[in-house]
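Repro:
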Amino acid sequence: MNNTKDMTQGTPWKVIILFAIPIFLSQLFQQLYNSVDSLIVGNFLGKESLAAVSSSGNLIHLFTSFFTGTALGGGVVIARYFGSKRYDDMNKAIHTSIAVGIVCSILVTVIGVLFAPTVLKWMGTTEDVLPKSIEYFRYYFLGASGMIMYNIFNGILQAVGNSKRPLMYLVISSSINIILDLLFIGVFKFDVWAAALATSISQITSAFLCLLFLMRKGTVYQVNIKKIRIHSAVLKLILKYGLPSGIQNSVIGLANVIIQSNINSFGTDAMAGCGSYAKLEGFAFLPITCFTMAISTFVGQNLGAKEYERAKLGSRFGIFSSLILAEIIGTIQYIFAPSLIALFNDDPGVVAIGVLQSRTISLFYFLLAFSHCVASVCRGAGKAFVPMLIMLIVWCGIRIAYITIIMSYIHEIQFVFWAYPITWSISSVIYFIYYFCSDWVHGFEKIKRNGNIALKGA
C-alpha cells in the first residue's frame, strides 16, 4: 500500500497534524494562484477589471459548488472502505467517483458558458464591468473540468491518507498560473479573460498530473481507464453522503450570490473592495480547510475500523486547533487590513470598502472554523444531511432574510457585511449542541449486503 496513510494507528494529534500540513500548504498554493489573478489584474488593468473578476467569484462558486460538494461523497465512501480494508469495494468507489466527475465536468462547462450573461445581469453587475465579467466567466468555465477532476483525484488520495502528492502538483500548477498571468497580462497586455485562461490551464495541468500518479501500478487505489464506469450500488452511497454536501454548498453559494448582488448595487469600488477582501478571507480559511479535510478522513477511517473513542479524540483536537489558528489569522488581518487590501488596488475608495468589510468580519473567524469543523465531523461519520440542513436554514434562509429586510430599511454596505458573523454565530450554537449531545459516532455502520458494497448510515 504505497503512498497511503492508515489513520487508525498512531497518536491521533500527530496523525492529524502530519496529514493536515501538506493540505495546508497545497491550499496555500491554491489560494495564492487564485489571488494572483486579482493582484495582477488589479495592478495592471485597474479597478474595473478587478471588479469584473470579483463579481464573478461568487457566481463561479455557485455553479461549481454543487458538483464539488457531491464529489465529497466519494471521498467519504473511499475512506470508509480503506479503513475497513475492503479494497475491492474501494476500487469500485474510486472508478465510480471518476465517472461521476466526468459527467459533472461536462454539465458545469456547458451551464457556465451558456448562462454567464443572464446570471451576471440578474446579479446587477454594472454596465462598465459586465462585458469583462462575461469574458472572465466564460474562459474560466472552459477549463472547469480541470478544477472538478482535480478535486475528485485529490479526494481519492486524501481518503487513503496521501496529502503530500496533491501538494506537489499544486506547487507546479500555481507556478504555471503565475507565469502565464504575468506573460498574458504583464507582457502581452491581454485583457481580463487571459487571467481566467491562465487559471484554466493550470487547473487542467494539476488534474492531469494527479491522474498520471493514480494510474501507477502496484497501489490499492490504482486507476484503470478501462474500469471507469458507474457502479450503481456505489453511486447510491456516493450520492447519499455527497448530495447533501452538494446541496449545502449550493445554497451557501446562492446566498452569497444574493449578497454579491447587493454589493454590486454600491458600485465599482464596492465590487473591487469586497473582491479584495474575499481573497484575504481565502487565506484566513486555510487552517479551517486543512483541519476539516483531515478531520473528515480521520473520522471516516476510524469509524470504519470501529475506533469510536479515537474518532472523538481526533475530532476534538482538530476543532480546537482550527479555532485557535483561525482567530490568530483573523486578528492579524484586522490589524493590517489597509495594507493588505491595497496590495490588490490602492484606489482609496476600494481600500476603504475592503477595510470596512475586513474589520467587520475577521474577528469572528473562530465561529466560521467551528461550524465547518463540526460539519466535517458529520460528513466523516456519514451524517452529511445534518450540516446540509443547518446550512440551508441558517447560512441561506436566515442570511437571505436578514439581507432582504435590512437593505429595505438601511441601504448601507456595512450591514451587508454583518450577515456573515450573525449567521456564523447561530450555526455555531446549533453545531455545539449537536456535537456534544448526539450519538454521531454510530451514524455509519458496516453491513454485509450486495457483495459487501453497502454501508449502513443512520
